[in-house]
Structures are given as structure tokens and as C-alpha cells.
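Could you please review the protein record set out just below?
***
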Amino acid sequence: MTAVPASITDGRALVDRAMRASAERLDPMTRRVVAYHLGWTDEQGRPAAAGGKALRPALALLSARAAGLPDETALPGAVAVEFVHAFSLLHDDIMDGDRIRRHRPAAWTVFGPPAAILGGDALLALSEELLLDEHTRGAHWAARALAAATQRLISGQALDLGFEQRDDVTLDECLTMAADKTGALLACACSIGAMLGEGPTRLVTALTGFGAEMGLAFQLVDDLLGIWGSPDTTGKPVLADLRARKKSLPVVFALNAGTAESERLTQLYALPGPQPEDVLREMARLVEAAGGREWAAAEADRRIASADKRLADSGMADHVRAEFRDIARFVTSRDH
């Protein structure tokens, strides 16, 4: 399993305490759904080991350090971006019909879709409330940035849903979808701590650009894992994205490659209903033969290189830039 950088693990306890305290504002029924979804409890409400990579909160804390500020400055932003991420996953699992999340039943299968939807709604509202509670110019800046990122996340999700009904999705459209659905919130996470501390605009711009590029790399790797990842590490069934006929980035590249494999993949993707494992494995072989796997891996590396360039003129300390680089490398080398 890929080692998680210290930049991600070091602040996890601090953020976790703040998240749990913030969740106490929710009504008991909604809090139970949220606590389960975040890995704090099991189906019966008993304590459990928390799951998830906590990547976005770590980036939020690091962005405060980039501005020469303590982690505590970024704490409301770290909690807020993670709550928005959790909201999106609660709803995403229902929309996609995914029954497994982090190696256990998805929240909607335990509490029902209505309760899971309300849990997501509550987290989204609470995320903005936490920022506005700060009553500073930086908090207002951060709240507006998070609202804009959430709007883009929803727009990207809408595009993704629309792709399911089309067989003519272009690679540019798919990249736009990924930039909105995944990149926008990561870009916000990478800069929200500096915003809360009213850091220099030049720094915030550089951090936002870094996060946007890293977000695309993150989605590219996610899409590779969605086809070729190990269920033991991803927590999802093997070939999950192909089973759901997702128009993921490597798939869309392969569908548009103009090869014999592309044509055959198009035919298989058009087949109605669930398909047996041998057909799914054939789809995976065709995606790879048409260049989708190689392109996605290379594009992820290119996006990480571009992300690093965004930090060159940011003015941040070298050791903080090195921490951002460590996280970027983790994004492209992770196996879960």
C-alpha cells in the first residue's frame, strides 16, 4: 500500500476533533448518518475507526503554513472542505447506486436514501456556517470561494450524469467535467487556509492553480483505480467503473482513439443491462489496447508537473513547497 505523507497524517487528529465538535450542531438523526458516513461509528452507532484519506483538510492546513500562519487559522476551512467532500460522496453513492464505501456498506444502504440525502444537505449547510462564524474578511473570502467550488462540483456531477445518456462524449468535455467535479474542491482546499489568514493574493492564486492541476491528476488516478485497482485497497469491486459503464477519462480517451479496439469498446459499452465478468475484462483490455491506460497515467504525471510550476513564484517557504510536492506525488502513486 502506498505510504501516506506525514503532511496528511500530522494534522488528522486536530481536524478530526474539530469535525466531531462541529457535527454536534446537527440533529441526532442526521448526526447518526453523518457519523457513520465519516467512519466514526458503525451501523448501531458504536464507535468505529475513522476512514478516508483526509487529503483535503491536510491541504487546507498546509495552505495556512504557506502563508506563515499556524494550522489553527485554517481549521474552519479544513473542516468545511471535508464536510463538502462528504456531502458529495453521500449523494454520489445514491446517484451511482454504489453500495460499498470504504470497505463497508454505503450510508444510503444502511439508513435509506432519504436520510443519506438529508445528511449530505446538512453537511453542506454546516460547512458554510462554520466559515461565516469567524466574522472576518478572510472568512468571507473563504466562504465565497467554497460556495463557488461547490457550484462547480455540482456542475461537474451533472455533466457526469449526462454522459451516461450519451455515446459521443469528447475528451475535452470529460476533462472539463473532472476539473469541476474533482479539481474545484481540491483547488479550494489548497488555498482556503491562506484565505482565512488573509494571505497575499499572489499566494492564493498560486495555491488555487496548484490544486486545480492536482485535482485533475487525482481524478485520472481515481479513474485508473476504478478499472484496475485492487478491491482490497480501493474498497470497491474489481472493474467497478466498467460495470457501471462510467465515461471515465481513460475510457473516453479509448472510445475516441479511432482504433479497431475503440470500435469494439463502443459496441460493448452500448450493451444493455449488467454484463458478465468476461465481458468486463474484455472492456478493460480494450481500454488499455486503445491507449487509455497509458494516456491517463502520463496525463496525471503531466498535471502534477504543471501543478508544481504553479508554486514557483508563490513566495512560500521551500519546506512548505516540499510538503505540497510530497502530497502531489502521493496523489499519482497511491493505490487507494
